[in-house]
């Protein structure tokens, strides 16, 4: 590993992350190590609870109730959704759209729940937290809460002293909240063994996307606090309180987002730029950790977690230290869309968000129009030429320049020749990609593609069987309209940022996936994330020979075939399954 600036970093963690990555690749003749047989009696519960914590019951909002859902297409245009005031009702909707249960499925006597955020194998390792100021319905004191999706309740872990809360929130706009995410690796490792750590990170990325989009549906802003050390996240969320997890599986710190209602005119500076911190003072978070907490984490599995040493090693190696993170110059200016994004879609955002599902099988027939594909892909363009805060939603949330590009297997797109395509999400990286890939590739701009969408045909041909084969022989990859590989600028990102950035690369893929899921629903088709693929065979298809680029996640989009043996039930007994209504916004 010889790279100039590598010397700046402690090498061991980077090597450990890369070792994990190599070791957890699926090969044609060898899958990454897993449990072999599933130990059903020891299956972890997908629902964490803190026994003894006092509860805030979030009101379940039916259709037609305030706050009403904006149009789906308005989600991506900053400034088009009026900001909902922060109340228990708007917070309820926020959690509902981001992390709540969206349906139950039943076959025979077996029932399982599904959520607005997807999860590899439906195992849901991601837990959500809220730090809020005093609000009616919340006991009128600031506090840190855990979100329990089964009951749609918040469990109060700690009351936060007013002065401490004010100090913690000093860098953020009025009425800001903090939303925390953690992962219980064991939930994924139970089923997937060593590769599970990757899936937990994908799921975090999906959850960040789901939170950003839920915020957008309320007209709220959201940024990831990119500078935080994992230690600070642990303090803030109470994850290092060993006594509260005495018999329970531990949670690993992931991310904290600041979320706030966007009020451009409230301080008399309409359109003015507001600076939002990307940091929290670690000493203040530590003070919260030392306060009097309530509740003990429940045990999720009968037996102690099976130890996968390589997961413990990569979790330690990719632990985030505090880093410099420039304050976010929050933009209240309308987000610039892409020319491919006519405001044509009138579906209610809430409807699209609540109906999102993974397809289990593709019909092998449904096609989409090239124009529609371009519109979907335009949503994935982060517009790197803009400062981070002015990038389109949800790319305004993450602080780093995008490192993921898309290799597409186009099967059934009307107006587009089948074959291998590439979407370069950062046009400055075109040369680097061209140099790394097969020299025979054509790099022909896709016909009729908007000029600001750098989608190129690499090689024409029927890639249906190839796509299926590469995705662990899953037919959904070949039977859809298209599938894709998310190709990361891998080695340089780790060498320049540090081992902790390994997790961010997966988060970025999850964020892309979350937008794709919703775009597929809006287009009348359906998508599925694909974590199971043969890593190096994928690299060979594109001619990628070293670690400059690595494919981290796959996705498929197509016409779904429903499984009629399954019955679908409403997410919460008290909530009607009636469709959401769209409202016309000025
Ligand atoms: C990171 C990730 C990887 C996934 N990998 C696969 C896969 O390889 N094959 C598959 O059929 N589904 C895959 N899925 C889909 C999940 O099984 C699905 O999200 C989960 O069952 C919940 O269903 P829902 O998405 O309809 O809510 C994946 C989902 C995620 C988020």
Brief summary of the model shown:
With 586 residues, this protein is of the alpha+beta class. The chain has helices at 11-23, 88-99, 162-168, 185-192, 196-217, 230-237, 282-289, 309-317, 349-355, 370-378, 430-436, 464-470, 491-497, 501-522, 535-542, and strands at residues 50-51, 54-57, 101-107, 110-115, 126-132, 143-148, 153-159, 177-183, 220-224, 252-261, 274-276, 296-297, 328-330, 368-369, 404-410, 413-414, 419-423, 444-445, 455-460, 482-489, 526-530, 549-558, 567-569.
Describe the 3D structure:
The chain is an alpha+beta fold and 586 residues long. It is 26% helix and 20% strand. It is built from 15 helices and 23 strands. The protein has helices at 11-23, 88-99, 162-168, 185-192, 196-217, 230-237, 282-289, 309-317, 349-355, 370-378, 430-436, 464-470, 491-497, 501-522, 535-542, and strands at residues 50-51, 54-57, 101-107, 110-115, 126-132, 143-148, 153-159, 177-183, 220-224, 252-261, 274-276, 296-297, 328-330, 368-369, 404-410, 413-414, 419-423, 444-445, 455-460, 482-489, 526-530, 549-558, 567-569. A seven-stranded antiparallel β-sheet has the order 2-7-6-5-8-10-9, with helices on both faces. Strands 18-19-17-15-20-22-21 form a seven-stranded antiparallel β-sheet, with helices on both faces. The chain has a three-stranded antiparallel β-sheet with strand order 4-3-23. Strand 6 (143-148) and strand 7 (153-159) form a beta hairpin. Helix 6 runs parallel beside helix 7 (282-289). The longest helix is centred in the middle third of the chain and has 22 residues, at 196-217. The relative contact order is 0.16. Residues 1-7, 266-272, 338-343 and 575-586 have low confidence and may be disordered. Flavin mononucleotide is lined by residues 114, 118-122, 199, 202-203, 206, 357-358, 474, 476, 528-532.
């Amino acid at each position: 590993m010889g790279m100039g600036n590598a010397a700046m970093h402690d090498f061991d963690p980077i090597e450990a992350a890369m070792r994990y990555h190599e070791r957890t690749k699926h090969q044609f003749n060898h899958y990454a190590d897993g449990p072999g047989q599933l130990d059903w009696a020891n299956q972890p519960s997908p629902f964490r609870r803190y026994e003894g914590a006092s509860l805030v019951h979030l009101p379940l909002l039916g259709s037609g109730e305030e706050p009403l859902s904006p149009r789906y297409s308005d989600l991506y245009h900053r400034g088009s959704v009026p900001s909902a005031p922060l109340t228990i009702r708007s917070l309820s909707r926020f959690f509902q759209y981001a992390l709540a249960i969206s349906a139950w499925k039943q076959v025979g006597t077996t029932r399982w729940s599904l959520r607005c955020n997807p999860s590899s194998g439906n195992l849901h390792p991601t837990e959500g937290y809220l730090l809020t100021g005093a609000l009616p319905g919340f006991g009128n004191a600031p506090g840190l809460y855990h979100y329990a999706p089964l009951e749609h309740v918040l469990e109060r872990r700690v009351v936060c002293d007013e002065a401490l809360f004010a100090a913690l929130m000093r860098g953020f706009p009025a009425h800001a909240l903090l939303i925390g995410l953690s992962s219980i690796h064991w939930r994924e490792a139970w089923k997937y063994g060593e590769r599970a750590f990757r899936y937990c990170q994908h799921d975090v990325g999906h959850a960040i996307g789901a939170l950003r989009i839920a915020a957008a549906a309320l007209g709220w802003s959201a940024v990831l606090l990119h500078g935080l050390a994992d230690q600070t996240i642990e303090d803030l969320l109470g994850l290092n309180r060993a006594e509260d997890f005495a018999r329970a599986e531990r949670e690993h710190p992931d991310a904290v987002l600041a979320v706030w209602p966007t009020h451009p005119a409230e301080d008399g500076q309409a359109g003015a730029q507001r600076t939002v911190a990307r940091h929290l003072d670690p000493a203040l978070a530590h003070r919260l950790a030392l306060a009097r907490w309530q509740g003990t984490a429940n045990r999720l599995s009968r037996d102690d977690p099976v130890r996968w040493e390589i997961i413990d090693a990569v979790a330690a190696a990719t632990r985030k230290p505090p880093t410099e993170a420039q304050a976010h110059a929050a933009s209240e200016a309308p987000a610039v869309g892409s020319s491919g994004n006519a405001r044509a879609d009138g579906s209610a955002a809430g409807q699209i968000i609540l109906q999102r599902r993974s397809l289990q099988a593709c019909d092998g027939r449904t096609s989409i129009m090239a124009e529609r594909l371009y519109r979907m892909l335009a949503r994935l363009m982060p517009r790197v030429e803009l400062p981070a805060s002015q990038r389109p939603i949800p790319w305004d949330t993450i602080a780093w320049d995008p490192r993921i590009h898309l290799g597409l297997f186009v099967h059934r797109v009307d107006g587009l020749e089948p074959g291998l395509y590439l979407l370069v999400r950062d046009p400055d990286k075109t040369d680097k990609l061209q140099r790394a890939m097969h020299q025979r590739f054509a790099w022909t701009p896709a016909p009729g593609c908007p000029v600001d969408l750098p989608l190129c045909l690499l090689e024409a041909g029927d890639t249906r069987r190839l796509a299926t084969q590469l995705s662990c022989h899953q037919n959904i990859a070949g039977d859809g309209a298209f599938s894709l590989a998310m190709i990361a600028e891998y080695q340089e990102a780790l060498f320049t940022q540090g081992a902790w950035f390994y997790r961010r690369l997966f988060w970025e893929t999850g964020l892309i996936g979350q937008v794709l899921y919703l775009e597929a629903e809006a287009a009348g088709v359906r998508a599925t994330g694909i974590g199971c693929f043969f890593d190096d065979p994928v690299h060979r298809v594109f001619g990628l020979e070293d670690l400059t680029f690595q494919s981290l996640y796959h996705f498929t989009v197509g016409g779904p075939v429903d499984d009629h043996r399954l019955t679908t039930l409403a997410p919460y007994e008290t909530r009607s399954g009636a469709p959401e209504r769209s409202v016309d916004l000025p």
